[in-house]
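This entry is listed below:
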Amino acid sequence: MSVKFNPLEYPFPSKRNVVYGKKGMVCTSQPLAAQAGLDILKKGGNAIDAAVATAIAMTVLEPTGNGIGGDAFALIWTDGELKGLNASGPAPEAIVPDEIKEKYGDTMPARGWVPVTVPGCVSAWAEMSRKYGKLPFEDLFEAAIDYAENGYPVAPTTAILWERAFTDFTKIFKDDYFKHWFETFTPEGKAPVAGEIVYLKDHAATLKEIAETKAESFYRGALADKIDAFSRETGGYLRKSDLAAFYPEWVKPIATDYKGYTVYEIPPNGHGITALMALNIFENYAKADNLNLESYHHQIEAMKLAFVDTQNYVTDPRFMSVTSEQLLSKKYAKQRFDLIQEKALTPKVGDPTAAGTIYLCTADSEGNMVSFIQSNYMGFGSGLVVPGTGIGLHNRGNNFSLNPEKDNYIAPKKKPYHTIIPAFLAKGDKPVGPFGVMGGFMQPQGHFQVVVNTVDLHMNPQQALDAPRWQWVGGKKVEVERDFPYAITEGLARNGHQISVVTDHISMGRGQIIWVNDDGVLVGATEKRADGAIAAW
């Protein structure tokens, strides 16, 4: 097998076993969406068709994490090669940075029109289907439209997140233009509970139009007109001209070699490079195959050192002052590793020039595999819903900096630093498979931990996801889950880490994995921290 699983059980027992399949597999955080993707495979579609159908269904079935007005990224293994798709949009042309800075100071607002960038996920669906799909584009919408029109029961984790959003939004949304969010997602004056049937009729009509026009209506037609009109009426910056000018971008994935494996990520403006940099740093630690205090300490320190660099440098690559190649230099990684001491450090930016999200993965019997992620960010995004359409606009611009000295300073037609990242693992010229862990700034940390669990500790995919996680949240602050080993938690505290134990497992990311073995058997795993499901054939 391309990945060797340790037959011994780890101290962290998994709640479920891996799932095996031969003809196809879909893993995501919503069971009905996973089944929608599998139905596409059984209908004759490939992994790309299944990924698109699942993604479309997720905008209806898990609106707490993504929507029609969000962004997307994909890594697609097909014809023996990995392709990358960046479907994240830029800031509107009408944005005036100095005016934003004068009004908001040093902090980008999280809601409203300022953080709204051009939505890209609809373009990703159309482009993936056009270039690599087998079935008609319209067929990929059938399940989503049916659930939106005829209703579906809300899953438990989704219900929790929906209630949190409703509680928060009731307190903070005072402007009249936020009323459309409440009309769309809480028409009964409350969030739906688990098992309650939800209808999203406006979503259904919008998805039909996107399907019939192959996404043209969203960017250059009637839906674009509605977005433009709502923006103009309510003081927004987004215009039809911004939508019309946007197209998704095929990009070359970035990668690093880690102990005989190749780990792939989407290049900046995404921050997947953080995981690769952390792996490069940690690779210098000689005892990585141990589950001990020293190993965890080095993992956390490696992640901190990588993260402060990417938070300083990563943005739209046209505006970066350093290159991805410089950030991924093994020599630079060794310099960063040499900074790690016995005690926790407060990380500082280095100089490499001196030397709310959903994730899904799919696979088919033809060897195609997809790692796909899309998001509205912070749950329901900006809080703005275009009236009568169900289009909830995301707030990715919140990650722009309002410091003019930073690479990531907000500017018209510029893409912001982006947190959503799909990942892929290979060995030589053979794919191991797609994986991802959604959850804001936890994502590269989740990717890093999954790779270490897989490559160094030989965990099977389910063990790699179920193992208790840590998350660096700034300075010397580290969060750990309740089932994190107590002795190591205490040891990290003695080493100077400021440890807090979290009870909210959702904040620690929600991941999915599909590996393929040398016999072509698919091995799937899904997240214990979500309503995850593996649909296999």
